[in-house]
Description:
With 123 residues, this protein is mainly beta. The relative contact order is 0.29. Strands 1, 2, 3, 4, 5, 6, 7 and 8 form an 8-stranded mixed beta sheet that branches. The protein has one helix spanning 10-15; strands spanning 24-29, 32-42, 53-59, 62-66, 70-73, 78-81, 87-102, 120-121.
Amino acid sequence: MNEDEDTRNVQAALASITAHWQPHRLTSVNDYDVKVVKLLGEFVWHTHPDTDELFMVVRGQLTIQLRDRDVVLGPNDVFVVPKGVEHCPRADEEVDAILFEPQGTVNTGDAGGEMTSELREFG
């Protein structure tokens, strides 16, 4: 175990999350945030008009519903939702995931609503 304060552990970060659909910033790279999140159930249909959104599944199976197809991701799978594409993530069982997106990106994109989350910090 590395005790360097600049080192982050993905599994430790995910283990500390207690609520679904509440992203936590693990670290930043330039002007992008690397976020960890636990997912369960269906999210909201939304778009990110100005940015792509990268999903990487760490544990479980995540379905990214698009209007014309579903993309199913398993552990270690990565999918990029292109900017402006309407999507709705769904996890029938709990999923651990990593998101990579520009700082300030709101989880519900243009949809807003009760599932909008303030970005939390890990650690």
